[in-house]
Specification:
The structure is a homodimer of 385-residue chains. Chain A has 385 residues and is of the alpha/beta class. Chain A has twelve helices and twelve strands.
């Protein structure tokens, strides 16, 4: 960690992976929608060894809520969010590639964000943080890579929000990326996804503890963040997965079986309810409410066609060799139609594109869960490069 | 209205259709999960004329949020919730049939519910209202029909929750129903639907104004009810409908374009957001929060298989001539698979069943919106009887 401000942020979010490196990437970082940030930090982790001609770099951009801890390492043995995908001998093979995972600008896991200290006020930015876009996240990632001497990326991989960042990065920094894997992502947010995110933000804002962003970090708006997470979760998996997994089973968790009021004699009577509660409680304790608002709205705003005169014009700026676009048949948040659009846009701009629609029951989150199916596709693609 | 208690309830909910008749159906009504209600009222409306042998009765059970005002009438010319479906010369033809629509027990539109006055305390029931089930709603409807002299129903129609009630009614009161139309409904609630409803209830309960059910009727938990309604709406239509209808259009509603906080410089910047807000504000002003909690949980609890030794055993008690089961291909809340299950259960119990999966973009709500497609199917079925 670079300075006391960083340490203060880390203190607020104890979950921040201890092995992440944090680098200052800019003294004055211009934001796309106006305003700027001074002394911008970006957190990242790296695995494997950079070869002599620096031609073995794989960069992973994360989804909305993930840290840079994509897999375990000697210095941080906690399992990463893509542990079964990234590692020695795995599909993304750290014995062959130098793998870098970058924490998003605006995320509370080490990069500069609304919980960071604004050095001009010596207070956390909170809502004085400038409006954040996917393009800002891409630009901050580019500066980080530049800072650590990476001028070319053999393969850039982005799932979900990470895919939006990867699209923006490939358009804005088109001399850097050689190959691309985009997973369950989109060229632009569509209204169903915007609606779900808008609702999540509204629930956070209506939590009285949110207090217009000026909540106490010791007593943050946990209800808002927890319920927001649950709303999100209704679109991260699939109805069929839940039917198979939970059906109408009752919850056996006694801690949750507390009377709340007459008609709901167990507040989370069904197993699906206690499952959501457990997952969302974990999340409420590690994610900052204001960061969530900023990252969520950035996804709504993203529209790659704004990076050119049209979507095709924007995509024509991409200058890569080969792309793999992976869709999941049960993904309702970033449905296969949106992956097809990406593949078509890339094809029209003379990129060699493989498009695959995987059949997985876990919906949007399949890339995190059905790593058997995903490993196969990713491994084959990497071998084909 | 029968007495001052009823009038008080109506005062609280000004939307209650003035033309509804309210009848006392029982002095002591036993509830399935325990407890009882005294002096139970059920609200209903009727159109057309009963023929001499009382063989032209069509009964409509409503969804979660509808009143008995299914269509306009001379005494209440406001359009009903199925105005294009029910009326003189329409698919459900009030010039030929005596059409009765019954307000659900537990709904705030005239039937006894958590906003009704408990005569023992002279206070609204609120959360002292006993646990409510779909079966209770069916039983109350049967008592209402008995009270008005209806011993046989030529055709019972139920969409959504109304379909659950119609299934329960046909099992529990199997000498009364001759034919059945079930629309976008289910034999039991599945976890995706339970999750969405659980979240809606949690949002209401977390609204500080909800106050454990003891809110002021002048200052009710509007935020909770409004956001709950929006969560529901994400499953009432379809993602594709919203893409076609709203895309990424920006809201032009200046009333909503108020600064809320920095990163969300218009609180409902996208048209999808202002659409949801408008619809949900309408709802928050007419629907009681406690009633919503009871009706919502009743849907989670419903499982027709509990009405027999098994689902098939329960369905074998149904004794009707013919059934039409209508599914919508884009319905994610009550998906076609659940309609097929109903049709299969009915078939195995020797009912003549027609199953149709309609292709409509409006999702679960298609029966309310695409009345051209639905009218055709319903009209043909009625003619075939």
């Amino acid at each position: 960690m670079k300075n006391s401000s960083d340490n203060k942020v880390v203190d607020l979010f104890k979950h921040t992976n201890t092995s992440a490196k944090v680098l200052n990437i800019s003294d004055s970082f211009e934001m796309k929608r106006g305003g700027h940030l001074s002394n911008v930090n970006v957190a990242y982790e790296a695995w494997g060894s950079l070869n002599s001609d620096k031609s073995n770099v794989i960069v992973i951009f994360t989804g909305l809520s993930a840290s840079s801890h994509v897999t375990s390492s000697p210095s941080d043995q906690a399992p990463g969010w893509w542990e079964t995908m990234v590692g020695d001998g795995k599909a993304i093979d750290t014995s062959k590639y130098y793998v870098i995972c970058i924490n998003t600008l605006g995320s509370c896991f080490g990069s500069t964000s609304p919980v960071s200290i604004n050095e001009q006020t010596n207070q956390p930015y909170r809502l004085t943080f400038p409006e954040l876009t996917v393009e800002d996240m891409a630009n901050a990632s580019q500066l980080l890579l530049d800072k650590i001497g990476i001028k070319r990326i053999h393969l850039l991989i982005g799932p979900s929000l990470g895919g939006m960042k990867a699209i923006a990065f490939s358009i804005l920094h088109n001399s850097i990326v050689d190959n691309l894997i985009l997973i369950s992502t989109a060229t632009q947010a569509l209204p169903y996804a915007i609606a779900l995110r808008s609702l999540q933000r509204e629930v956070i804002r209506k939590d009285p503890l949110w207090n217009n962003g000026f909540y106490s970090y010791e007593n943050p708006p946990l209800n808002g963040v927890r319920i927001a997470r649950k709303i999100g979760m209704t679109s991260y998996r699939s109805a069929n997965e839940w039917t198979q997994r939970f059906g109408r089973k009752k919850s056996v968790d006694n801690k949750l079986n507390q009377n709340t009021f007459g008609i709901e004699n167990t507040s989370f009577e069904f197993e699906i309810e206690s499952y959501l509660e457990h997952q969302a409680v974990k999340f409420q304790n590690i994610f900052d409410a204001n960061c969530y608002l900023y990252l969520s709205r950035a996804m709504d705003w993203f529209d790659a066609s704004n990076l050119g005169k049209s979507s095709l014009d924007a995509f024509s700026k991409i200058n890569i060799n080969k792309a793999l676009v992976l869709a999941v048949d049960t993904d309702t948040l970033f449905p296969p139609q949106q992956q097809k659009e990406i593949a078509e846009n890339l094809s029209l701009s003379n990129t060699k594109v493989e498009y695959k629609e995987l059949s997985c029951v876990q919906g949007h989150d399949s890339f995190l869960v059905d790593t058997v199916s995903f490993s196969k596709e990713i491994e084959n693609f990497i071998k084909s490069l």
